[in-house]
Amino acid sequence: MRMADILRKVRAKQESAQQDKDKSKDEKKPVSPQPKKEEEKKAAPPSLSPIVRAYRDDKSEQPKIKSEKTEALKPADGQSRSSKVVKYSYEESLKLYEETLIMLKQLLKEDIDYLSVDINKINMQVEKIVEQMRLGNEHLLYFAFTRGFKEEDYLSYHSLNVCIYSMEIGIGLVYDKYKLHELGLLAVLHDLKMVDHKNLIKQPRKLTKEEFNKIKEHARDGAELVEKMIKGYTKIKISAITQHHERVDGTGYPNGLHGDEIDEYAKIISLIDTFEAGIHPRTYRNAYLASQALQEIINTKDKYEYRLIKILIDRIGMFPVGCIVKLSSKEIAQVIKMNYDRPMTPVVQVLFLSSGRPLKERRIIDLKKSPEVIIKRELNKEDVVKLQDKLLAKDEER
After folding, report:
1. pTM, whole model, 2 decimals?
2. Which end of the chain, N or C, is less packed with Cβ atoms under 10 Å?
3. CB 331 within 8 A of CB 353
4. Burial (CB count <10 Å: 0-12, 13-18, 19+), residue 269
């Protein structure tokens, strides 16, 4: 079955369930008096559901969703929201990524006094990432996909990557910079108390029921800790951290919430938490291809909202920025930019010719404008290593 058909069924089932729920609420609701004239003038909120089209033929724009006004977060010290911001170069973006990573490695130590943590420093780094993501900085998306790490640093990389990818979903939802900042801050702190369970998450085996129940505590414990850390500093939806393992169909934890009972930020972080974990290796499995990670999400159908899965595919994609792909021309290329209206046809940079030899000159192909060339498949790291070994062997023969 094509992915478009699966997504269409997921959406239809979720909408049907929501309609049944709304109908049930209406039946139980007592008859209320007629609203006053002032209330009648209020416009109905815009629909959040995008139009469904066949996946490969989807030419629709991202859903134009009006963001709700949110309380502004405090600007980081020394940062002016009115100052001009420019898009970072590759080197500047790498510096931002590495600086944030160092901060998270310090934050995710087992013996740290969290109440002495400078929350303003975290806030400042998130603000910088928001600015760059709003400018369309592909370098941060590239690092989120390609950066390798040791198992002991998993939580730091995972937290930062979830922050970056969550913001990309927020941009797809047309969030303003304040909502993106709030989402990013929640995402970067969502697994703060998972540090208490480092030994368990490193296990190369399936956890026992008792061990898994112990890990479940990190969601509620993390929310309580973050609330203490930011007290008197800024106001954010702490419930998103408590709920980031809840699922739309009610199978999540800690409270088994359903549908609209779950905060929207939590729904985004939940989806990205699963996707990001899938595309990177763990002690008990190799990394999935991006398409495999997406298929795993789609196979679980009702656990995530259709509209968020759709934005995940459109903005991060089957072939995310940074992944290595084989083209129909037999050339090997790397994805360097998404075409949001045609996610199966990103912009790529050719790395190896069809002969297998490295390309000496930079050559960019916008697959959206070159319909004669398509992506045949994504390559995993093992494929790339084999290709490199093959080239080395040829060089030695010569």
Report:
1. 0.80
2. C
3. yes
4. buried
